């Protein structure tokens, strides 16, 4: 039973009084975000704390050790990527990811590093790259999983046959107790003596029974590892009990990881097979060529990836023809000796040619190509959650490990279980170590399918034991820890209980998981499930389909999704967190359960920049801006809108009138602007109103089709911000197209309703959408090319209009039109001397159209210019977001993360950007004006 609100309040006040410096929060949206992981379960914590340092963790343990808070459980959380509820619990959740994510020390000579538990795996390896070192293993969630989470679940992944599991690569840990910190790399403090003595006695008592019950496999059983803790030489390494213990023995505050040298040579073979059984049978013979990893992907995953267009990124020979389906085998080779590696590679290719069902073979030698091929495999697997219908693949029995030679028979048994239950599935995995990820498709809202989850789990548990394997080979145990007692038997399990009692005598660290009193253990059927599906047609349906895979939690500044999370490190300010909060709010309204505080929900939706990266990059395409619009529409039917929002909507709707009045407004704008900023609670609004362009470069939309236009005419459509404020880009568009032989006609601006759509003003959006759709149809009838200057405007027409049911004629981005012209043989002028330029892309543009930058590169190549397109994330402006006072910290933080470093490189070079927001933000933050790519073209050919 969860503690009452009064007890939580007392705890929060006590924690603050004792000097806890991190956040202490009961925000209902944050608690909703922390209530799920990548599993089908949902447990709401009562309070979330985010420590700044190890000192904070000690304060936390000291406070909960008081009698007043004896019933308050404590659970550590890292990246939240667990597939079985590992970090879900009531009481207190410690968010280590938010602040305790630093690399503390690196010893290159001895090849180790000290890290905080919240550090993300890819972040660590990126910082180690200059030293030529890395930390293994390679997990599929490496962009967001934390080292602490990897240690706690003993995570594994690609290459583990060579590199081992996480526990094989840990040198020591530090833990927090009420008395202070204890490190395995230093003598134990006196106060720890009785605790360690009790743990050792219990461990030694059950060691032999533990060993007798654990198969000798690469993916060994870990978590309370009695075998390794009690060494053969008589020493007791207490810290090894914590590896795989999922926080049930207490929080880890510092981790020393063993590092490996990065092998300079890397190769990847991707081969097709007629069937998955053929691919599986190929694994054992291919081990003779000593690959670092062998991964497989079945026909269902291939089909899902093909339908999503992902397989178009594969080399032509690997793409399935027509409706044919195939399975894939990925073989990676790493090493020091190039010649030895190539000999293995050649032997592998010849062997592949002799194997049953083998088809096309592709060899990648370039590291960028290898990364892309692995990314395709990962993306295909990520789409498993995107299947249509109420049933979706669920990761609840997906990491069983058996000896590789037993894998075919084990698979036959597994598939028979699924057939008996009438379940579909997808399969991928690491066949070199006998680990297949099989995800049966279930509808967790259905009682019948929940019963199947239990029945299948029981059957697969028994099947795994029968084939000499381990039920938990890679992803930890979580609520599946309920099987541990049966697996190990009474003597070994009693030893685990003794270890638990030594480190956690009050049973408060992640209680109910792995080890504990039988009546208190969570299990796969009794743990609360998260809602799986919304009603058909519900505008918040995508929030229910979010499966917690958490690609949106990538640490990398240059990854577009999700900017607000990158700036804050706060889970609630992410697509996953917002989806969780929206789902909880919707469910509470429907079921009459305690509601999510709408003020909390408004807070997390307000920090969304509306970049739409989630709508394009998330495997499930959880479109937060669209769902935010639906929530706002509901909320503002019941509540009055803020003045700033009303002014924004009014400004968009009346923007054609404002533009018509620019001769009047322009001279007095400097006096009006401060008033507008005060009313809108904004800063740094544009300081100039755009002058009207020459009459020969303008046309009223009502005149489209009324008289013939020259064949070299291009119709240019604008958003209201560009038309009202960006005189420079209007001129650059005219002059840049003129330089290439075209006549630009700026169609008198009609607002597309982007602000109305974003703010949930559906009536206003529909009115504007109707008008611009009719105008675009008139423009399309002229047969002339139509382009939009600003990417956000064009993507609104493509994305939002389609979702709102509007079919509009195609409006191209400038580079789409120009690249198409190049392909059709149009000759553009070329510069007389070698030139280079840099283009910083608009994040909405690059996520919605990944080829957008390459199209500009093709255009500039035709002009004789070498165009560099560095990878960047969000600039931090996103329309009005960066102008709003309340968002200044986030806006500046985002600019500093990604754009500032790029703009500081080669400061005197030609810089450009496609987005109005991006150019505005750059000028605001640096004082430098950068131009649209068409402006660079205009300058090159005046």
From TrEMBL:
The keyword Transit peptide does not apply. Gene3D superfamilies: 3.30.465.10, 3.30.70.2190, 3.30.70.2740, Alpha-helical ferredoxin (1.10.1060.10), Uridine Diphospho-n-acetylenolpyruvylglucosamine Reductase, domain 2 (3.30.43.10), Vanillyl-alcohol Oxidase, Chain A, domain 4 (1.10.45.10). GO terms for biological process: lactate catabolic process. It comes from the Bacteria. Pfam families: FAD-oxidase_C, FAD_binding_4. One of its GO terms (molecular function) is metal ion binding. The keyword Hydrolase does not apply. SUPFAM superfamilies: alpha-helical ferredoxin (SSF46548), FAD-binding/transporter-associated domain-like (SSF56176), FAD-linked oxidases, C-terminal domain (SSF55103). InterPro entries: 4Fe4S_Fe-S-bd, 4Fe4S_Fe_S_CS, FAD-bd_oxidored_4_C, FAD-bd_PCMH, FAD-bd_PCMH-like_sf, FAD-bd_PCMH_sub1, FAD-bd_PCMH_sub2, FAD-linked_Oxase-like_C. Residues 41-262 form the FAD-binding PCMH-type domain. Its cofactor is FAD. Residues 599-630 form the 4Fe-4S ferredoxin-type domain. Keywords: FAD, Flavoprotein, Iron, Iron-sulfur, Metal-binding, Oxidoreductase. This is FAD/FMN-containing dehydrogenase. It comes from Neorhizobium alkalisoli. The lineage of its organism: Bacteria, Pseudomonadati, Pseudomonadota, Alphaproteobacteria, Hyphomicrobiales.
């Amino acid at each position: 039973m969860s503690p009452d609100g009064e007890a939580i309040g007392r705890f929060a006040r006590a924690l603050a009084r004792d000097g806890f410096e991190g956040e202490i929060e009961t925000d209902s949206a944050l608690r909703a975000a922390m209530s799920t992981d990548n599993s089908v379960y949902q447990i709401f914590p009562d309070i979330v704390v985010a420590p700044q340092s190890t000192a904070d963790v000690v304060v936390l343990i000291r406070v909960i050790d008081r009698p007043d808070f004896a019933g308050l459980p404590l659970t550590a959380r890292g990246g939240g990527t667990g597939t079985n509820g590992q970090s879900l619990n009531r009481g207190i959740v410690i968010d280590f990811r938010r602040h305790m994510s630093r690399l503390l020390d690196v010893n290159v000579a001895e090849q180790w590093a000290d890290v905080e538990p919240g550090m993300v795996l890819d972040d660590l390896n990126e910082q180690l790259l200059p030293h030529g070192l890395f930390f293994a293993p390679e997990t599929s969630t490496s962009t967001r999983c934390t080292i602490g989470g990897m240690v706690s679940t003993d995570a594994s992944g690609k290459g583990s046959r060579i590199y081992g599991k996480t526990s094989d690569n840990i040198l020591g840990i530090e833990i927090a107790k009420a008395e202070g910190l204890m490190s395995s790399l230093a003598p134990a403090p006196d106060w720890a003596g009785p605790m360690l003595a009790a743990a050792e006695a219990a461990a030694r008592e059950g060691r032999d029974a533990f060993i007798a019950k654990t198969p000798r496999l690469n993916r060994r059983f870990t978590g309370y590892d009695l075998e390794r803790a009690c060494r053969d030489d008589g020493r007791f390494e207490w810290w090894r009990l914590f590896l795989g213990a999922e926080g049930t023995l207490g929080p880890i505050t510092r981790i020393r990881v063993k590092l490996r040298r990065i092998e300079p040579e890397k190769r990847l073979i991707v081969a097709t097979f007629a069937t998955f059984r053929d691919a599986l049978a190929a694994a054992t013979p291919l081990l003779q060529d000593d690959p670092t990893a062998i991964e497989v992907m079945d026909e269902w995953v291939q089909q899902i990836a093909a339908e999503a267009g992902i397989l178009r990124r594969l080399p032509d020979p690997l793409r399935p023809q027509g409706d044919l389906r195939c399975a894939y085998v990925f073989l990676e080779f790493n090493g020091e000796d190039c010649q030895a590696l190539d000999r293995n590679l050649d032997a592998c290719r010849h062997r592949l040619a002799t194997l049953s069902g083998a088809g096309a073979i592709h060899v990648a030698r370039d590291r960028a190509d290898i990364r892309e091929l692995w990314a395709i495999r990962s993306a295909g697997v990520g789409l498993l959650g995107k299947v249509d219908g109420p049933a979706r693949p669920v990761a609840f029995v997906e990491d069983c490990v058996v000896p590789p030679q037993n894998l075919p028979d084990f698979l036959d048994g597994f598939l028979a279980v699924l057939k008996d239950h009438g379940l579909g599935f997808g399969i991928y995995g690491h066949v070199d170590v006998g680990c297949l990820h099989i995800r049966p498709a279930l509808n967790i809202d259905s009682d019948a399918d929940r019963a199947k989850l239990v029945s299948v789990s029981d059957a697969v548990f028994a099947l795994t034991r029968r084939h000499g394997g381990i039920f938990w080979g890679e992803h930890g145990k979580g609520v599946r820890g309920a099987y541990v007692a049966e697996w190990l038997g009474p003597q070994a399990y009693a030893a685990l209980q003794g270890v638990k009692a030594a480190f956690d005598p009050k049973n408060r660290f992640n209680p109910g998981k792995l080890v504990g009193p039988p009546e208190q253990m969570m299990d796969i059927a009794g743990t609360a499930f998260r809602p799986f599906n919304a009603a058909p047609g519900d505008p918040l349906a995508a929030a229910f389909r979010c499966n917690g895979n958490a690609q949106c939690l990538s640490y990398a500044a240059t990854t577009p999704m999700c900017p607000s999370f990158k700036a804050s490190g706060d889970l609630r300010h992410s697509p996953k967190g917002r989806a969780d909060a929206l789902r909880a709010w919707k469910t509470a309204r429907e079921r009459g359960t305690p509601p999510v505080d709408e003020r909390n929900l408004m807070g997390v939706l307000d920090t969304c920049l509306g970049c739409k990266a989630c709508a394009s990059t998330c495997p499930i395409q959880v479109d937060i801006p669209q769902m935010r619009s639906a929530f706002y529409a509901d909320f503002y039917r019941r509540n009055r809108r803020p003045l700033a929002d009303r002014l924004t909507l009014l400004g968009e709707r009346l923007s054609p009138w404002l533009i018509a009045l620019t001769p009047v407004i322009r001279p007095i704008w400097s006096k009006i602007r401060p008033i507008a900023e005060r009313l809108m609670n904004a800063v740094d609004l544009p300081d100039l109103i755009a002058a009207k362009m020459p009459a020969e470069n303008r046309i009223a939309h009502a005149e489209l089709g009324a008289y013939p236009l020259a064949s070299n005419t291009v119709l240019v459509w604008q958003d209201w911000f560009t038309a009202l404020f960006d005189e420079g880009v209007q001129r650059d568009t005219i002059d840049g197209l003129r330089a290439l032989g075209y006549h630009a006609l700026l169609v008198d601006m009609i607002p597309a309703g982007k602000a109305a759509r974003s703010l949930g003003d559906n009536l206003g959006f529909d009115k504007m959408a109707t008008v611009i759709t009719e105008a675009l149809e008139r423009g399309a009838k002229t047969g002339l090319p139509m382009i939009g200057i600003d990417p956000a405007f064009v993507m609104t027409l493509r994305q939002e209009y389609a979702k709102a049911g509007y079919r509009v004629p195609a409006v191209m981005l400038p580079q789409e039109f120009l690249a198409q012209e190049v392909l059709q043989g149009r000759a553009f002028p070329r510069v007389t001397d070698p030139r280079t330029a840099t283009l910083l892309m608009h994040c909405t543009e690059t996520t919605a159209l990944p080829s957008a930058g390459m199209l500009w590169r093709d255009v500039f190549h035709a002009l004789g210019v070498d165009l560099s397109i560095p990878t960047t994330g969000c600039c931090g402006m996103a329309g009005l977001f960066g102008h709003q006072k309340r968002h200044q910290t986030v806006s500046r933080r985002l600019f500093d993360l990604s754009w500032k470093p790029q703009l500081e490189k080669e400061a005197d070079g030609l810089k450009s950007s496609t987005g109005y927001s991006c150019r505005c933000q750059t000028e605001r933050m640096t004082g430098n004006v950068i131009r649209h790519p068409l402006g660079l073209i205009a300058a090159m050919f005046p």
